[in-house]
Design a protein that fits this description.
CATH architecture of the largest domain: 2-Layer Sandwich
Number of domains: 2
Shape: globular
Number of strands: 10
Order of helices and strands: EHEEHEHEHEHEHEEE
Largest sheet: 5 strands, parallel
Distance between the termini: 66 Å
Strand order of the largest sheet: 3-2-4-1-5
CATH class of the largest domain: Alpha Beta
Amino acid sequence: MKVYFIGAGPGARDLITVRGAELLKKAPVVLYAGSLVPPAVLGYCRGDAELIDTAGLNLDEQCQVYSRAAAAGADVARLHSGDPSIYSATAEQMRRLEALGIEYEVVPGVSSFTASAAALCAELTKPGVTQTVILTRVAGRTPVPEGEAISQLATHGATLCIFLSGPYLDSLVADLLTQYPPETPIALVFRVSQPQERIHKSTLGSVLNEIVLDEWKLTTMVIVGDALACDHSEESRLYAPEFAHLFRNASSFKEDK
């Protein structure tokens, strides 16, 4: 018996990995967060699977399901939205499973930050602009460690992908403006890849005057940084004709002017 922590992806049925979908087809027990995992993803589950919505269950109650499944020798698929490595509360589940002597495996998924970048047709790292992406969130009921305040992370000038922060957009923008200039691009992506997807692109100095805050409170990814600008930034050296590496020789070809 094994528990599989599976990244369900950002919401679209076809953005779960092949491995994750194949495991769902086999698992007799499936736990999922109904508030985050769209029903379409559950379409991969076998017809007789026991589907358990964990939205109303605390950690102890979820562990009771794991113990019951282990006693029956039944594998469990535990679906988490996005990728299980980010804001998924899997660490405490893994500790409990280890204490129970239950084997587990993690199957990665498509994160909402990469899905949002795809929806924006944006490369989050651009030569001469930034080579760093910071994944973070603002403090809510779960506090943020000292040194990870938005205003401090913003000092790097990197691309910021800010999770779980829709309810705090007004204060978030204020904190970002302490380090980024008002013309810095910002993008709000609501329920990326799902039928309700909405995108708003603006600048830090203008965005709050253009939106209704209540419309962006839940399931919104916020991306900030100059990498979002549609300008002619410096090109990567990777494909430059004179750039040789293990798999390609340098070329003396010059384009005719």
